[in-house]
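Appendix B. One record, verbatim.
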Amino acid sequence: MLQLMDFNENPNVGVYSRANDKIAFIQKGLTKKDKNSIKRALDVDLVELNIAGSSIVGSLLSFNSTGAVICDFVDKATYDTIIDKGFNLRIISDKFNAAGNDILVNDYGCLVHPDVRDDTIKEIKKTFDVETKKGTIAGLKTVGMAAAVTNKGLLCHPKIEEDELKVLKDLFQVPVMIGTVNHGSPVIGSGLVANNKGAIIGNQTTGIEMGRIEEALGFI
């Protein structure tokens, strides 16, 4: 199921939430209607979080079915909340530690900001238990915002290079398509949160863009 929506009049839903097939972590303060819409679209349990007082949950947290990675300024209450949900949680101490922005991951592979340290890459690989590489998408280092991936498909920035595309196909083991969200934005991860069952999409997204999302992520 696809659901057009905004968070407090902001269509960048991927900045404020992140999901897998069982759970979605979302910013605090959304309306009951919005929370019900997310639950219906993604068919998940919802957990409301702030990370060190910040609502940008989707930018600071990354996870697949096995583990989760979070920035090193996470507060204890948030850390405990994520642990309580059964995640193998790793705090990364790196100059580039906005995990949601800098990591793209599913249950088959992981692509990371190319300037992340090698020792951090090893920690990320161990946490997610998948092949992990450094790379870019359309030259962008913030790979978590340049694309959205599930275990069924990947939608990415339309200006991706051919060599980058090959890396994505090999690494994530799913079909890869290009597209946009929110009426032409190429920063896919900022306006789209998806799992294998559905997606929430920024409400400025056009019908043509939605059709592309459906096809890329295997909903049709």
